[in-house]
Amino acid sequence: MSLNVELLESSFEKIKPRAGEFGASFYENLFRMYPEAKPLFATTDLAEQQKKLIASLVLVVENLRKPDALESPLKGLGARHVQYGALPEHYPLVGNAILTTFEQYLGNDWTADVKQAWVEAYGAITEIMLSGADYDSKTVELEAVTASTPAASTPTAQPKSSVNWGIFGAVFGGMGTIATILLLLA
Question: Which of 4, 53, 103, 136 could be 110's S-S partner, Cβ–Cβ 3.0 to 4.6 Å?
């Protein structure tokens, strides 16, 4: 799959000046969309976690032109998350929150093409992680943009999930830079 690297880079550049706010908004969106997740971060230093999220975004975007540099760390990350008890259903939760956050920060620049670029990037990274975890990538596929999908829509209410939030918190509670990629991409 060929990613739209230029569009990913240029859209990410637009959020960089507000990176700190972006990180905070991501967690606000995650907790709003999936309120069951909030108690799991009660002992997490969210300011530090927000920095890790941004550092992970930087790592991914800076390596879009050399994806081989991401393959091994992402496969290892996927394998480790199986050990933590992570399931494929956990990946879309964070992916939905990160897409919502990009939409909020890019405003009118959040076009159907930009959304599709980020959906594809998220999908590619998730697929690499899942290949290390031996999960089926179809299970975590995000909805692709269609002609009828508005470029900047109001987020809709999310259905209740059957996610094991205890495992989710254990997986995402104390991650390093590479591990945080899951937070922004999953």
Answer: 103
